[in-house]
Amino acid sequence: MTTDEQSHVLIIGASGGVGKALVEHYLNQDWRVTAWSRNPIEVTHDALSCVQVQGYQPAQISDALAELDDVQGVISTLGVLHNDDFMPEKQLDAVNAEQLQASFQVNAILPILLLQQLLPKLPRKQPAFWVQLSAKVGSITDNYLGGWYSYRASKAALNMLLKTASVELGRSHKKLVIAAIHPGTTDTQLSKPFQERLPQDKLYSPAKSASRIAAVIADLTTDDSGKLLHWDGTELPY
Ligand SMILES: NC(=O)c1ccc[n+]([C@@H]2O[C@H](COP(=O)([O-])OP(=O)(O)OC[C@H]3O[C@@H](n4cnc5c(N)ncnc54)[C@H](OP(=O)(O)O)[C@@H]3O)[C@@H](O)[C@H]2O)c1
């Protein structure tokens, strides 16, 4: 996407492994970057504006939203697989309401509310993108291993929410592409507990994943809107 002005991207969840690498990637590509995070972001640059938010509920982002200039694109990295309270469920016995609710909240509910809130900041008639990082394990068709109930189901819900929004917004924002991108297994705190049995060549650095995600974004067309895309740009089945 090219414009006369310096392109401006908003990265949400910018203190995370992939989020921080995306901030650095876009700054290196001469984009203006706004970074939202609940935590301080340890990157400084003339083209970077960091905004610390309390959380990502509509009421918690209202000040950040009011400060935000129009953007060409938004990338939300929000996602939770495990935290201090839970690990992904290995079997049905482990499924519980708290984990399901917490996973749906971060992986599906907050992302669609963010899209709702941020839509006025995205151009109606110019090319623009709204990308949420998703996961291949959220593909229902591709689920051969089972397990990880909450994560899988909440990412599948995310994919449906984005697909539904893409149908509606395809009418009002004809050049806006809404996409879910699977970053591949990346060396961050999210994947840390599951890295042991992974071949080293299947674990990617955050910088590598960020540059692949940005390459997929650079090639997005309106035909891609509503799709779940692999980091290599191919379409994954829902
Ligand atoms: N790493 C992988 O192997 C892998 C594989 C497939 C898909 N993904 C997806 O890629 C995305 C980025 O993952 P990552 O590896 O960079 O993970 P990460 O380092 O844990 O970052 C996740 C981000 O989500 C936000 N977040 C986490 N819990 C939250 C909560 N309770 N409330 C609000 N925000 C919360 C955080 O934003 P703050 O900056 O505000 O803290 C954080 O920056 C996720 O959507 C993940 O599902 C990752």
Annotate the secondary structure layout.
Layout lengths: L7 E5 L4 H12 L3 E6 L10 E5 L9 H6 L5 E4 L20 H22 L9 E6 L15 H24 L3 E7 L23 H13 L9 E3 L4 E2 L2
Parallel strand pairs: 1-2, 1-4, 2-3, 4-5, 5-6, 6-7
Antiparallel strand pairs: 7-8
Helix pairs in contact: 1-5, 3-4
Describe the structure.
By secondary structure, the chain is α/β, with parallel strands linked by helices. It has one domain: Rossmann fold (3-Layer(aba) Sandwich). It is 32% helix and 16% strand. The chain has five helices and eight strands. It has helices at 17-28, 62-67, 97-118, 149-172, 206-218; strands at 8-12, 32-37, 48-52, 73-76, 128-133, 176-182, 228-230, 235-236. It has an eight-stranded mixed sheet, with helices on both faces. Helix 5 (206-218) links the parallel strand 6 and strand 7. Helix 1 packs across helix 5 (206-218) and helix 3 packs parallel to helix 4. It is globular and about 50 Å long. The chain starts with 7 loop residues before the first strand and ends with a strand. The mean pLDDT is 96. It binds NADP nicotinamide-adenine-dinucleotide phosphate. Residues 13-19, 37-39, 55-56, 77-80, 106, 133, 135, 182-183, 185-186, 188-191 line the site of NADP nicotinamide-adenine-dinucleotide phosphate. The site of NADP nicotinamide-adenine-dinucleotide phosphate has 27 residues, from helix 1. One of its GO terms (molecular function) is oxidoreductase activity. InterPro entries: Fungal_SecMetab_SDRs (IPR051468), NAD(P)-bd_dom_sf (IPR036291), SDR_fam (IPR002347). Pfam families: adh_short (PF00106). This is SDR family NAD(P)-dependent oxidoreductase.
